[in-house]
Design a protein that fits this description.
It is built from 17 helices and 23 strands. It is α+β, with helices and mostly antiparallel strands. Strand 10 and strand 11 form a beta hairpin.
């Protein structure tokens, strides 16, 4: 087959897995290329909070592979197509090596305090297994400085997403005040120096992009995959649509798909996701349309977990734009609960956002309602409601519903009033005793970290009793779908018969994740992408040696 050009590893998409794979392939002497269909680099990683959950990585000095295995197996449960035992073991062994590899490539990563989402479970970690990137000055990208994607809902400021929880406590704790003062100083300093420092996904992908450019890795923007090219059943290249016309690109060692899920594809959401489900509820990059996944499926690729997404329950403004991700960093504060139309609480408001989204659908609570007592808005920020600021403009806009009594609030929101009043009374009893007997909110290290340490007897539980009362709709927003192509421990795409499709690899949100239907800690999606992008590149570049070892 004749190609316009040929590389060793052709990588489709430009998320974190793509750059990790490209760097790994280059380090092994290969010639990789990154193809991105959009004009902006970074995929949904650039839109994200920019954190990665990778157990026992080199930045942790208080973890072990044994504890990590215990926790992962406990949270994920029985092995499945998405998460077989061999794939979990590969994640546990190669994830830490991928982190060390990125550090060796000059990607400045740091450990951040974000407890495992089920930190009280066997093997759970109270400080957390999450890493991020140091703040990054976009000016370091030179002519690429304006080619990095970003999420409009995250302010372009020198602050990492892991600091957001501290900032919600700016009026309550010295730690919160310190975080606010530090942010103010950093903004002032950047204005003086002309720096454009960013945190979150821009820090991760900015540093990844810089490393790729330094390594001389070709990056082709506005190269949209239109076909996976095969020869006798093996994937040998791709066809892409470019501003200059269609081109074919050969892949000597393999093609790696890291093109995201299908959050922006309403037809696929209607087919696979729980309902209701709307593309307007996703906060991923515009290119997350499922095209590459469908091309692999056309070749016989198996799929799993297609009903799942990385649910991040939050609110929308009256015009449909992003209002905030609220679970658990804000909803875990005292004097706040979230209920369904039946007036019953949905789940642990200080727990895992993915589990909370699953509960919303299981209860038929789409949308749900966040109930904010007057003290909540007095002490803490809530999305567009800045701490200490009057919420009245947001009441007038329709974002917030306001009432002097809980019964009136229920009536305005269409909530079952009798059940709601009984639920609030029950919750207030929990708050007084400091123990949530329904969902155990505020008991784990993670729940406590989402609460207010100045509040007792439980930092996360505060009564709903002082008016006025406010409510806002909570939707199952997402930061990507979390189901897709079934892959083995080497990131090879498998058919419905469990056979690898020769030459085809996948990593990131296009795959059924190693964590299955769960979300064990902040950044589990990005962590899996980094680990299996690294694995894919190494397997592709050393395929002959590995195949021989397997045969032996």
């Amino acid at each position: 087959m004749n190609f316009d050009e040929t590389f060793d590893l052709v990588i489709v998409g430009s998320g974190c897995a793509s750059v990790t794979a490209a760097l790994a392939a280059k380090a092994l002497g290969g010639r990789p290329v990154i193809l991105e269909k959009q004009a902006l680099f970074g995929g949904s990683t650039a839109f994200s909070g920019g954190i990665a959950w990778i157990p026992n990585n080199p930045l942790l000095d208080d973890d072990s592979e044994e504890a990590s295995r215990t926790y992962l197996n406990h949270i994920v449960g029985e092995p499945s197509k998405a998460s077989p035992t061999a794939k979990r073991e590969m994640f546990l062994t190669e994830g830490p090596r991928a982190v060390q590899f990125l550090l060796d490539q000059g990607v400045k990563l740091i450990r951040v305090p974000w407890p495992d989402y089920y930190s009280a479970a066997p093997g759970g970690h109270d400080y957390g297994r999450t890493i991020s990137a140091e703040l990054f000055d976009l000016n370091e990208l030179d002519e690429w400085r304006d080619k990095l994607g970003s999420f409009y809902g995250f302010p372009p400021l020198p602050v990492g997403s892991f600091k957001f929880v501290d900032l919600t406590l700016a009026k309550r704790t010295w730690k919160g005040k310190k975080a606010a003062l530090r942010l103010g100083w950093d903004i002032f300093r950047d204005k003086l120096t002309g720096a454009k420092r960013r945190g979150s996904g821009n820090a991760v992908q900015g540093r990844m992009l810089r490393a790729a450019l330094d390594a001389g890795i070709p990056i082709r923007m506005e190269h949209e995959l239109t076909e996976l090219l095969t020869d006798r059943g093996a994937v040998v290249g791709v066809k892409v649509r470019t501003p200059e016309g269609d081109r074919t690109i050969g892949a000597r060692q393999g093609v790696l798909l890291n093109a995201g899920g299908f959050s922006r594809n309403q037809e696929m959401r209607d087919k696979y996701q729980p309902q209701p489900s709307k593309t307007e509820w996703t906060m991923v990059n515009p290119g997350d349309t499922g095209d590459a996944m469908q091309m692999a499926m056309a070749l016989g690729a198996d799929i799993d977990c297609m009903e799942e997404a990385w649910w991040t329950p939050g609110s929308l403004m009256p015009d449909g734009t992003y209002g905030g991700f609220h679970v658990p960093g804000e909803s875990g504060k005292p004097h706040i609960i979230i209920v369904g139309p039946d007036g019953k609480r949905v789940g642990n408001e200080a727990g895992s956002y993915m589990e909370f989204g699953q509960r919303m659908y299981a209860k038929g609570a789409v949308p749900s309602w966040a109930i904010l007592e007057s003290r909540a808005l007095k002490h803490y920020s809530w999305g567009p409601v800045m701490v200490g600021k009057s919420p009245e403009p947001l009441v007038e806009s329709g974002y917030l519903v306001k009432a002097d009594t809980l019964a009136e609030l229920a009536s305005k929101c269409g909530i079952d009033a009798a059940c709601f009043l009984a639920e609030v009374e029950r919750f207030n009893g929990f708050a007084a005793r400091g123990r949530d007997e329904d969902f155990n909110r505020g008991a784990s290290g993670h729940n406590k970290a989402m609460g207010d340490p100045t509040h007792g007897p439980n930092p996360s539980l505060g009564a709903i009793e002082q008016g006025p009362f406010y409510a806002t709709r909570i939707w199952p927003l997402d930061v990507g779908t979390s189901g897709g192509l079934v892959t083995d421990e080497y990131s090879r795409v498998l058919t419905t018969e469990g056979v690898p499709i020769a030459g085809l690899y996948a990593a990131g949100n296009i795959t059924a994740p190693v964590v299955g239907h769960s979300y064990p800690g902040a950044g589990a999606s990005i962590g899996g992408g980094i680990a299996f992008g690294y694995v894919a590149a190494r397997h592709a570049m050393q395929a002959n040696q590995i195949s021989a070892a397997e045969a032996a």
